[in-house]
Amino acid sequence: MYRFLLTRQWVILTLIGLVLIPVMIELGFWQLHRHENRVARNERIGKALDAPPVPAERLTSPGREVPDSAVYRRVTAKGTYDTEHEVVVRRRTNSDDEVGFHVLTPFVLDDGKVLLVNRGWIPADGPQTAFPKIPAPPRGEVTVTGRLMGDETSAASGIKDVRGLPDRQIMLISSGQQAHALGKQVLGGYVQQTSPRSDSPQLLGEPDHSGIGPHMAYAVQWWLFAAGVPAGWVVLVRRERKDRLAAAAAEAQAEPVEASPATA
């Protein structure tokens, strides 16, 4: 009755189903892990943003990476802006997806070390090869507050670190590169300025730490697909059996009835 399952077509179909089930289950768990990582990231960012600000030098130092636990922490620093060595970061967008620059200004601390401060976004109102006009920061000694960020990399950001750019333009924010350019000790990472407030450059908004994305829904979908494979296989088997029985019955009805011998 079910001998057709041994045919080449059904053996291949069954093997494909047996391969798809664990693959779909694994894809579901992959999306579940992405969901869990997103939730954990949101919690970490929220705690960092809610924590009281601390001096930047407590969380970072020259030549060292910013630890994950310190990223987005609010920090403060007292010093003076060094606009002479200010650079801009190319191809950055604002909240309206307009393309422009981020303004990266060295901030010289009281002990002579340098903290890189991202003062915000400005539009690209001219040729990309020209250094844009940048609103000046406050003069003299000031206290800066902002979110501590790790150095940018091509692997993490997807931005290629292009060389040979116009003077005072960069693609990625790297404390190591800026330390080499300045010839000074530069604290690892950089700070996204939140205070003093400024309309230009436009201060960068907080990172999104409320959305969880569609990963949980995708996980459920993959698991439903995995459950649907054996269910679909059963439906196809029953349909095939029904079609074969119907064909056999029709064939039996179509066979000619043998004539009975004539009587004398």
UniProtKB/TrEMBL annotation:
Entry keyword set: Cell membrane, Membrane, Transmembrane, Transmembrane helix
Pfam families, sorted: SURF1
Q: Where is the signal peptide?
A: none
- What are the annotated GO cellular component locations? plasma membrane
Task: Report the subcellular localization.
Answer: Cell membrane; Membrane
Q: How does it sit in the membrane?
A: Multi-pass membrane protein
Residues that span the membrane, as ranges: 12-32
State the family named in the UniProt similarity comment for this chain: Belongs to the SURF1 family.
What is this protein's name?
SURF1-like protein
* Native organism: Streptomyces aurantiacus JA 4570
